[in-house]
Amino acid sequence: MTGNSHKQENKYQQDLFEAADASDDSRDQKQYAVMNCDGASSGNPGEAGIGVVIQLSDEDARRMNLEKTYTISASIGIATNNVAEYSALIKGLEKAKSLGLKKIKIFLDSELLVRQLLGIYKVKNKNLIPLWIKAKNILTCFDKYTIDHVRRGKNAEADELARQGVKRA
User: Fold this and answer.
1) Of 45, 75, 92, 126, which residue is least crowded by CB atoms under 10 Å?
2) What is the C-alpha separation between 30 and 60, in angstroms, rounded?
3) What does the alpha-carbon distance between residue 107 and residue 154 come to, in Å, rounded to a whole number?
4) Which residues pair with 165 in a beta bridge?
């Protein structure tokens, strides 16, 4: 499994999809899918929602006979913002796994989650530990992945989906 990368700033609009090695089988995913995740809570804790956007390249969508874009917006009940953030990531990873994706670039606007997932910060909150473990376990299902922090503005669609989830609560 390829390791993770972390960048304080990244060229989100540029290089969304990276070509894979020429040795990949033609039926397999050749480029990275891109996943943006966000969680929201009205109150901390409060009514919470999750938002996820998964985008495949045109080539991979055709090759794998999949849609180009998948979205998730859901209410998750009462939760803290950090629980909502982890819940969005986990739902997104589960969806990506169910689609058969093997390479994924993950973008989160929660610097805490990114740093915890990359091992920079320890997970100390007892409510987050099982979520961190679950996310890390699902990540092992991917051949390659990156996890990067983005500013909230670069995560606008996932943020809107998470806010919609809060409203459904």
Assistant:
1) 126
2) 7
3) 9
4) none
What residue segments make up the domains of the chain, in order of their start?
Answer: 33-168
Residue in the structure block whose two tokens are 């989100």: 12
The CATH code for residues 33-168 is 3.30.420.10
Write phi, then psi, for 145 (nearest 5 degrees): -155, 155
User: What pTM did the predictor assign?
Assistant: 0.84
69-79 and 144-149 beta bridge pairing = unpaired
